Amino acid sequence: MAGSMLAASAPPAQPVVNRAAIQDSAVPPPAPRSPRNANYTISARLDPARRTITGTERLSWRNPAAVPATTLRFHLYYNAWRNTGSTWMRERALGATTRVDQRPLDDFGWIDVTSIGAEGTGGTTADLTSRARFIAPDDGNADDRTVMEVPVDTPIAPGQTITLQIAWTSRIPRTFARTGAVGNFFFIAQWFPKIGVLEDAGWNAHQFHSPTEFFADFGNYDVQLTVPEGWIVGATGVERDRRQGPDGTTTHHYYQEDVHDFAWTTSPDYLDQHALFEDAKLPRVDIRLLLQPEHVGQAERHFAAARATLKYYGEWFGPYPYTHLTVVDPAWQSSAGGMEYPTLLTAGSRWLAPRGTLSPEGVTIHEAGHQWWYGLVASNEFEHAWMDEGLNTFATARVIEQAFPRNDYVKRYFGDFVPWVFRGHPLTRQTDGDRMGPYRLSPKGDAQSTPTFRYWPATASVITYNKTALWLHTLERLLGWETVQRILSTYFSRWAFRHPAPQDFFAVVNEVSGRDLTWFFDQVYRGSTVFDYGVDTFRSEVSTVQGRVDGEQGPSPRGELKPSRVTTTVVVRRFGEGIFPVDVRVVFENQEEVRWHWDGQDRWKLFQVEKPVRASFVQVDPENVLLLDVNYTNNSATLQPQAKAAARKWSLLWLVWLQDHLLTYGFFV
Amino acid sequence: MKVTTAFRDGIRRVNGAPMVLVGMFSVTLLIALPLSYALRGMIATHFGPSLAADSAAAGANYDWWQEFSAQATGLGTTFVPSIVGFGAVLDNLSGLLDNLPVASTIAGVTAAWLVVWSFLSGGVIDRLARARRTRSLGFFGACGMHFWRLLRLGACGWLFYWILFTYLHGWIFTAWLPRLTRDVTAERTAFAVRLLGYAIFGVLVVVVNVVFDYARVRLVVEDRRGGIGALAAGIRFVARHAASVLGLYAVNAVAFLVLVTIYAVVATRAPGAGLSMWLTLAVAEGYILARHYLKLLFYASETAFFQGALAHAGYTAAPAVVWPDSPAAETIVNADPAALPERWR
């Protein structure tokens, strides 16, 4: 049972020392949860007026691969917005509906590494700055500066550690890709020179692409953030102490172990609120909410969503291992909402957020859920974004179904500001949570096995989020929730703090379910197959025999009714290319039903049965197991169709809309 | 004449012309019905024999709706979940205020309705101005007599509205507002600024609307032959009576807001296919009828106000003067000297 304590905290006196951190440091440190290959000590100063960050970092990196490293590769994500020639900008222009390349020059951002040194023995530092060069391993784009390669003097052997001193300056963009600033709201993510992941096959350090996110090794982050005095800071980890500067600044010291990224935010406007997650079976978590003043009435909704996530994800997949979670409610127009970082997430809400709709709950649950699928199970988002986004979309929808079942269709009017809730239009898990609608429009956007950064940008999210949620939900209906829950909890426990690949997930599915589901993944993952089963023919007629009928009185050259027998004929058809076993169910007028199982292989299948009564209706896949079926309307047929009644009703309601439309334009005459 | 007097007089005149109300309502219904019938066929075809129709008949089947939308073309693209209940009103008002393009599939019928309404408005204003029965001959005679003049006036009006909605709206809402709110981090502030934009735009649109309303009234009541002359007369009248004219407009606008608010309360969610559907439809058509009533009330109260501001303010329509004499001629002929201002006697 989750409980909460909600209170607005007063601005703390200076300096502040986090007691929890002290208590934590008094006990013996627990064994590392992660390999801690990349450990950062960062010091950064924000100049909000100039929108710049000046920073230094000390990176201790251990070679986790089986091969020596002769070079080091760093992500410089901020350079994605250096100019319109970057790969990110070019890709965004392909798939976006708004032109990012026409944004004002002041919007752009960048990062410049000013020095790189490798610490040697005896306190010496080898200057590597002049060796640094930009590379474009994915597309050879010479204008892209999001990956920097630095050769080292001596190859770094497997297991060996190198310590680097890096200094940089960066210009904070007007928000692109959920990082940046607007007014005095700053959300700073992907902001420091970050080392890539070295695998046995070499560096896995992709350029920043428009449709994809990130991939990094686990480590510890010890970060000092200097901001104007009085500004509230939220960040990955826990604040350990706070120091007043002589120049009207405050330095906030944050620390977090066993994470693979660090993000932070600052603004003078935040309302700082706190709640607890407590559950008899799960660890206690402090939830911190940095709330926009205009959303003050929505605090408990954020907390309820965060607690639901901690509860259900914790019970289903595994407990949240950290003691804290920070929910950031981003400023209006900041475009920073709906993003996940270790122990910190950006939610997103509207000033007018009617109850019974899922804003802000939906996005809070989704981003909090990423603590499991991304934060802990750290799959490669560049290459296999479905492994975190898709799994998490599926799980988000399931939590919403459990904790927030009331979810009505809402539309906003008058410049997209004023919401109106359509109480008669309840949204379902598969249409809203699994996002069937957009998937139906472009099911062939890409084969999911294509590396995500090579997806067509305009449909990348559909293939990543929607399709995965739909096929996982299909698996849930095929195998049962208990089995899928065991699959996901096994996968979580086996791969938390590691970097699984798709085959690792599929192996867990086959192992736990005890079934070889390769045929399924061949279609939904390795291909872009579209599924569509439907009823082709449905008849239920009194049986007759024509011709020379052999009766009790001998052969008779006439047609004859077979008394009290009705033949029901069903032809079901596979309209799509996808193959999936389906049930066919016929219900008769006396409520009796007949059910056949069809392997779904052939293009069509005939089923016939004789009964004393007529059939009422037939359904293919009556339980809608195959949620990827893009046309479920044709999955059923009835002998008493209500199409006319339904069409009459809806066309008359539409008639009112049209009359109102005409009268509205009557304003002009 | 006081604003409230004109408004009450307008109510009296509309109440005295129930057949005009029924007729205008019927015209709107008849123009909209064929498209509704066409949509009905599209929906029925998509359902086919499917069981999805059962749930769609009993309530709202959002899952099916998404499937329908995914394959819909033409008229079907306008069949969206937000057409139900009060959503229809918001959809249309918001669409107009935000200058959203009218779907091409209903643009034709919208234009046709506007032309038909322009044709009928001559007869309507004539009837409301006389405040007595004019019979079919008189009504349609006035329609025919004023049609081309009103159409010319309407074309002139459209030019003004086109400038307002294309250039001014674009400037306010796609250039000025985004610049003004670019660094605003509070949504309520951005909304307040947008409301300011609506207010600025609305005032200008209302001014044009009022001018053309009175131009239309003067064209019919004074049997003016030229649209431009009527427009000039409308401008002069509005300029001389600006406060009262805008006050009357505001009273009418409040009446509209009251009606819309009532409908927001009584409009129901998606009904079933039986009695509840007919009840929902009855309520909705009642609202549409009331919209027509308010539209006529706009005409009637403005006509009453204009006539009340004339020298022969106290004219009565009896005994009848046979069309094609204008309402003004009828007024003069029937003017009771006792009712005239003293200086006119």
Q: Your description of this structure?
A:
The complex is a heterodimer of chains A (669) and B (345). Chain A has 669 residues and is of the alpha+beta class. Helix content of chain A is 22%, strand content 34%. In chain A, the strands form 9 sheets. An 8-stranded mixed beta sheet of chain A has the order 6-5-9-3-2-15-18-17. In chain A, strands 1-20-21-22-24-23 form a 6-stranded mixed beta sheet, with helices on one face. In chain A, a hairpin with a 2-residue loop joins strand 13 (197-199) and strand 14 (202-204). In chain A, helix 8 packs across helix 9 (481-495). Mean pLDDT of chain A is 93; it is low at 1-25. With 345 residues, chain B is mainly alpha-helical. Chain B is built from 12 helices and no strands. The model of chain B is unreliable at 315-319 (pLDDT under 50).
Largest sheet of chain A: 8 strands, mixed
Distance between the termini of chain A: 62 Å
Give the proportion of residues in helices of chain B: over 70%
Quaternary structure state of the chains depicted:
heterodimer
Q: What is the H/E order of chain B?
A: HHHHHHHHHHHH
Largest interface comes to: A-B, 78 and 98 residues
Residue share in β-strands of chain B: under 5%
Q: In angstroms, what is the radius of gyration of chain A? A: 30 Å
Form type of chain B: globular
What's the total count of β strands of chain A?
A: 35
Q: What's the β-strand tally of chain B?
A: 0
